[in-house]
Amino acid sequence: MYQRPEAICQRCVEAVSGEVVGDQLKLMKDAVEQARKLRRDRLIACLEREVLRLRDERNTSKNAAMCV
Q: Quick one: which H or E segment has residue 31?
């Protein structure tokens, strides 16, 4: 199913606008895979950076919860 890169990006923005949870990270990974299929290098790089940011944010919040 083809979706324009702008639509993929908009879904990602919506996904990361709230609290970080596993479903959002999965959505981002799915968007990266779809961008790869479309061969959108700049979009792929943007999405991969966002996935890494989400992972870091999730791990930081887990570590903070363990320290309390």
A: helix 22-38
Instruction: Say which residue the tokens 């989400």 belong to.
Output: 54
The number of domains in the chain is 1
Span 16-37, pLDDT tens digits: 555 445 677 777 777 777 777 7
Q: If you count them, how many residues does the chain have?
A: 68
Question: Six-digit token pair at 53?
Answer: 């940011």
Distance from C-alpha of 25 to C-alpha of 62, rounded to nearest angstrom? 15
Residue in the structure block whose two tokens are 């993929």: 8
Residue 31 belongs to domain spanning: 5-67
C-alpha 43/C-alpha 49 separation (Å) is 10
